[in-house]
Automatic annotation (TrEMBL):
Belongs to the BI1 family. Keywords: Membrane, Transmembrane, Transmembrane helix. InterPro entries: Bax_inhibitor_1-related. GO terms for cellular component: plasma membrane. This is Bax inhibitor-1/YccA family protein. It comes from the Bacteria. It is found in: Membrane. It comes from Candidatus Enterousia intestinigallinarum. It is a multi-pass membrane protein.
């Protein structure tokens, strides 16, 4: 379960960027994707270490998930919210550290889902990752290239994300709620919402670069953008993995 702001917030600049749309924006996007895929790699490593050591046993009790699991889960959500709210108050290096800390926490709390997949069919992990990667690439490219204004999606994506979060919270109390047909529908909606978020954010990142004149702000926005895209990718992967292991 992931949480994020709907809009990429930027400070109002005094003047438009004079770096042009050439090498400047290419470097900016490279920085975003380097941070984002670096965070994905950290998440994979954290999950592997958790599963390969006795750490995974600390996430479970005889009756279900442990208190430690919920502390890490909600602690990670709080960190993600705080990092987004304070994105333009942190140095870019501090923001990057928070991104990777959140990636570590995400990797740990994903362990139960991955263990289910390994027990059921390990190949679904690779399948979900490949499908998520292809969808992410297509939607990111669409968001960057399209001339259609995607801002109208904001309110709908926000509502969809809130609905998914509420269902996720309810499933901790009533696990059966995500079973059967309803659970399958939730997974499809989750994939759709975060796929659209990818395109929405890419368009916002492109537009933000065009108006930000300060290099520090661009670096701060790059970290925030990497966090948003990371959340979308990981959420798509989780929903796809859940969908492939519905049985």
């Amino acid at each position: 379960m992931a949480i994020r702001n709907v809009a990429l917030k930027t400070k109002s600049p005094d003047a438009p960027s004079r770096g042009g749309a050439g090498g400047g924006i290419e470097l900016y996007l490279k920085r975003i994707f380097a941070l984002m895929f670096g965070a994905v790699a950290v998440t994979a490593l954290a999950s592997y270490i958790t599963m390969a050591t006795p750490l995974w046993t600390m996430l479970f009790t005889q009756t279900g998930l442990s208190a430690l699991y919920y502390i890490l889960l909600f602690g990670g959500l709080a960190l993600a919210i705080w990092a987004q709210v304070r994105a333009f108050s942190f140095k870019p290096s501090t923001g990057g550290l928070m991104l990777f800390l959140y990636a570590i926490l995400t990797g740990i709390v994903m362990t139960p889902l991955l263990l289910v997949a390994i027990t059921s069919n390990p190949y679904t992990i690779l399948s979900a990752f490949v499908i998520a990667a292809v969808m992410f690439a297509c939607m990111a490219l669409f968001g960057y290239k399209t001339v259609k204004d995607l801002s109208f999606l904001g309110i709908f994506l926000f509502m969809g994300m809130i609905g998914l979060i509420l269902v996720g919270l309810a499933s901790f109390i009533w696990p059966a709620i995500v079973g059967g047909t309803f659970g399958t529908i939730v997974c499809f909606i989750g994939v759709l919402v975060f796929a659209l978020f990818t395109a929405y954010d890419m368009q916002n990142l492109k537009r933000a670069y065009a108006v930000l004149g300060d290099g520090t702000q661009k670096n701060q926005l790059a970290v925030l953008g990497a966090l948003h895209l990371y959340i979308s990718f990981i959420a798509m992967f989780q929903y796809l993995l859940s969908l492939l292991n519905r049985n």
